[in-house]
Amino acid sequence: MSESGAVTPGPATPAGADRPRYAYLGPAGTFTEAALRQVVSPQDAQYLPQTDVAAAIGAVRSGEADYAVVAIESTVEGGVTATLDSLAGGSPLVLLREVLVPVQFTLAAAPGVTLAEVRRISAHPHAWVQCRRWLAHHLPRVVHVPATSNTAPAALLAGRAAQAAADLGFDAALVPPTAVDTYGLVPLAVDVADNATAVTRFVVVGHPGEVPPPTGADKTTLVVHLPDNEAGALLAMLEQFAVRGVNLSRIESRPIGDALGRYSFSIDAEGHITDERVGEAIMGLHRRCPHVRFLGSYPRADAVAPTVHVGTADADFVTAREWLRAVRGGRAT
Ligand SMILES: O=C(O)C(=O)C[C@]1(C(=O)O)C=C[C@@H](O)C=C1
């Protein structure tokens, strides 16, 4: 990001309006860009860096971009609320793919700055949380200067010597390891994240259309509102999945925003909407809940197939339906 707040361009891309346009959290070198590179190379797409997640998703809604790549969940922080909230409301969008990126951080500064001189660190709030223990131990009095992304402060420091960097309002930044070279910074401490195995999950967001075909190892994301003032409404909602053998890999509540005590549930269920058990569970939600938003069925990044319990395979639902038809037609008991 420039000092005026404008986002600096991502990696140089050949011109060409025919290439799909991907909005993502910039500037160049963010973990989000690493996720985008797993999806499509800069040669085959237009990379459109944005200042935040809402802007990236908004670019798809406005037609400025065809897709957005955004963080949705981290092993340390859980759900990325900016993403969950942007997808829960507004015009419908769907998730088309997920990508996992290992996350590590380096504390870096302009050339000439030493660790002992660091008083203020610029960092994305998620990065700050992911390095909290290291910071408390090594720099207990340091002040957090929030940044819009993991590379926004690196872009501000780029090309500055210690003296020239002094008026930026921070002395060092928590950045992805690759950003140190990209922006000509000096590492003050490496591997400063508290969790060495931290991973962030990113999703490709696009317009609703054809659902990606089932792979046998898929995930379905939903937003569900519960009936008001109904004892056991949450349990009843969960039972729609449980009785059909559908495992949930994530469920979290988010305020709907119109009144205190009103929450929606953001859910990742194992399986594809074309799986009988998943389809039946979602129909159950539709019957019982005032609002259900389908946010897509897409392949799991880890390609792990769900455990299918006795009586919940597609064939079991088909057989049961045929049996019911026969009973109703007086042909079976
Ligand atoms: O993509 C980046 O580098 C970001 O700054 C965003 C983000 C996030 O939104 O969670 C991505 C990965 C890390 O978990 C920390 C921050």
UniProtKB/TrEMBL annotation:
Its EC number is 4.2.1.51. It is an enzyme of class 4 (lyase). Keywords: Amino-acid biosynthesis, Aromatic amino acid biosynthesis, Lyase, Phenylalanine biosynthesis. Residues 1-17 have a biased composition (Low complexity). One of its GO terms (molecular function) is prephenate dehydratase activity. Residues 222-300 form the ACT domain. Residues 1-20 are annotated as: Disordered. PANTHER family: PREPHENATE DEHYDRATASE P PROTEIN, PREPHENATE DEHYDRATASE-RELATED. This is Prephenate dehydratase. It comes from Cellulomonas fimi (strain ATCC 484 / DSM 20113 / JCM 1341 / CCUG 24087 / LMG 16345 / NBRC 15513 / NCIMB 8980 / NCTC 7547 / NRS-133).
